[in-house]
Amino acid sequence: MNNPANYLRLGALALLWGSSFLLIKLALAALAPTQIALTRIVLGALVLLALCAARGLRLSRDRAVWRHIAVAALLGSALPWVLFGIGEQTVDSGLTGVLNATTPLWTVLVGLLVSREAPPPARIGGLLLGFLGVMLIFAPWQGTSMLSWGVLACLGAAVSYGISYVYIARNLTGQHGLPPLALAAMQLTAATGYGVISLPIDGLRPVQWDLLAMGSVAVLGIFGTGLAFALNYRIISDEGATTASTVTYLMPIVSVLLGWLLLDEEIGLRVLLGMAVVLTGVLLTRRSPDPKTPAAPTNQEEEMSEATAVEERPTTEALPPVEEPKGWARFQLALLRGSQLYADLATNHPMK
């Protein structure tokens, strides 16, 4: 990395976003899913608005932009955060993090459906492999399948994320002259309205004033939503979106470890293998197609090339061919290519 401090920022970002599922589980002891979502949205929005004010960034007043923001706020913030809260009432936090790791697959699938273009074989193979990993996690061939309403809610949240990322990429990113930080602040501001509207679902019940639960939702909103995105924004500014989005692969690992260490959650070998297959599928969806072989030059092009060969011949010896990366360098390159998924579609959104 250009700035070694960004290794620490990336680790902190993975911890903050990966721990969000643990914090939701703890907050459920005192709050309803809609109450958790609204509190998280409000606290995150306040943090981002404060950061925008400190940096002199202004929010757009364009109604067309706000219409797109309203859609992104529903699909990318309010709806998935409510669904994760509903799902975690019956689903372990570690498994929720694993299910969230399918988001890039849904993003690619929605993008392919919207573009209606013939995808490269590697991308199709990655999607198939990723969804086979999902099947491995659920194991429907066994008598006791893990598929439940809670799991479906978590998968619905991941699908909602995928749709929102494609929508944001097509209608907001780089089209209105607004920096990602301002777009994120606008998105959470709009999501506040959805959070209030969703309260009648289950959020009108009395709040249980449990200190751990209230502290968890406060950390989730201030750090896991507001400040975490500020970290992501800094990494993007210093290193580029591809490097910043490698956090996608660290989040499920963090969520599984925290659930196991702090909540005594059991994640079986089959689920871990399924998670590895899903992430491998995500990597394959980001493989670049082989470059096309250039067309053979015409006779006229060959004559022009021969006529100018003497003038263009370099006076120094040709450089040796660049060797393919090996070992750890090759693994890092593959990881960065795979993480480009969120870089293309979701870098202007506080993802988790």
Automatic annotation (TrEMBL):
Main location: membrane
Bilayer topology: Multi-pass membrane protein
Name of the protein: DMT family transporter
Residue ranges annotated for the EamA domain, each copy included: 13-138, 149-285
Membrane-spanning segments: 39-57, 69-87, 93-115, 122-141, 147-168, 180-199, 211-231, 243-261, 267-285
Keyword Transmembrane belongs to the record: yes
Subcellular location, record wording: Membrane
InterPro entries in the cross-refs: AA-Vitamin_Transporters (IPR050638), EamA_dom (IPR000620), EmrE-like (IPR037185)
Disordered: region residues: 288-324
Family note: Belongs to the EamA transporter family.
This protein's UniProt keywords: Membrane, Transmembrane, Transmembrane helix
Species this chain originates from: Saccharopolyspora oryzae
Top-level taxon in the UniProt lineage: Bacteria
Keyword Translocase included in the entry's annotation: no
